[in-house]
Design brief:
Elements (H helix, E strand, L loop, with lengths): L1 E3 L10 E5 L7 H17 L3 E7 L2 H5 L11 H10 L4 E6 L2 H4 L3 H12 L2 E7 L12 H11 L2 E5 L3 E2 L2 E2 L2 H9 L3 H8 L4 E7 L4 H5 L4 E3 L10 E8 L6 E8 L11 E6 L10 E11 L7 H23 L3
Parallel strand pairs: 1-4, 2-3, 2-5, 3-4, 5-6
Antiparallel strand pairs: 7-8, 9-10, 9-14, 10-13, 11-12, 11-14, 12-13
Helix pairs in contact: 7-8
């Protein structure tokens, strides 16, 4: 998959295109991307995605913008797995936000990407003040000879699949429901970086996984499976949050303790899959109380994996 950090002034080839934020790449996104890839293969053109960085809501209202389900790197990896050939990452800034719907059509869809077929979600709006809509794209398609298709909403057990629904499930600690909407377990990927090494002093060495998001979509203590350490996934327990007992950090941290592992992971790229929520993040009365609670967390996580292995 090729990733472009800007829209070309003039397209070198025509594309089959979809547009969106694709945060989480959930089942609804996957259905759209499957349709995109199938159509692109049929007409022998690249399957292309136009996405935005930062998320438009992060630009307009950073304090109230939703927590990201995926950072850009994670999103790109998921898009590649859905058969996408080209991703255009459009910088969402003041100039782009001021662009009219007609300019978006002329400069991006027609000249920059030479759209042959466009597939959009049923709620897609675009341009300054969200003035562009489906009828406008229909008219543009007739004028510029591209076809247009709207994807219907995907539902799971009668619920509309959306990034917001996934965030709600994660916030409530319902990881099984989040996984049903995503089509996979929710995960966070990142490189292991050096930390304060407090975990080792407490008797539970942790890998500090880099977080590329201002705030996580979930916090607490979890039973996790970790990919990237050897050939098979390894079980462990993770704390995701702000370490209130230690320093009350304003920057969220993901710390993972792997069971029965004694090695160095600095620089490794891990994928942490969240399987079971154990508890909220809590401020304890000193490190001894924290150590005792971590031991209980480890015990609860191991009990969860033992129950899984036993078919329960």
């Amino acid at each position: 998959m090729l990733v472009f950090r800007a829209i070309p002034k003039q397209a070198a080839t025509s594309t089959v295109l979809t547009i969106g934020n694709f945060d989480g790449v959930h089942l609804g996104h996957q259905a759209l991307l499957t349709r995109l890839a199938d159509y692109a293969r049929h007409v022998a053109l690249p399957a292309a995605v136009l996405t935005f960085e930062p998320h438009p809501r992060e630009y307009f209202a950073p304090e109230s913008a939703p927590a990201r389900l995926t950072c850009l790197r994670e999103k790109l990896m998921l898009l590649a797995g859905c058969g996408v050939d080209h991703v255009y990452v459009c910088r969402f800034n003041a100039r782009f936000a001021a662009q009219s719907a007609q300019e978006f059509v002329d400069e991006i869809l027609v000249r920059g990407l030479s759209v042959r077929h466009l597939i959009i979600g049923d709620d897609f709006r675009f341009g300054r003040g969200r003035e562009g809509d489906f009828p406008m794209l229909q008219a543009a398609g007739a004028a510029h000879r591209f076809t247009l298709e709207a994807m219907e909403t995907v539902t799971v057990a009668g619920e509309r699949v959306s990034s917001s629904a996934v965030r709600d499930a994660l916030r409530e600690g319902d990881l099984a429901h989040a996984a049903r909407l995503l089509g996979r377990e929710y995960s966070i990927a990142g490189r292991v970086e050096h930390g304060a090494k407090l975990g080792r002093r407490l008797g539970f060495a942790t890998a500090n996984v880099q977080l590329r998001r201002a705030r996580p979509a979930l916090t607490g203590v979890f039973a996790v499976q970790v990919d990237g350490v050897g050939a098979t996934a390894r079980p462990g327990v993770a704390n995701l949050g702000y370490r209130p007992t230690v320093d009350g950090s304003r920057r969220p941290r993901l710390e993972v303790h792997l069971f029965d592992f004694d090695g160095e992971l600095y620089g490794a790229h891990l994928n942490v899959r969240f399987l079971h929520r154990i508890r909220d993040e809590t401020k304890f009365d000193g490190l001894d109380a924290l150590r005792a609670r971590i031991a209980r967390d480890v015990g609860e996580a191991k009990a969860f994996f033992n129950a899984q292995a036993a078919g329960g």
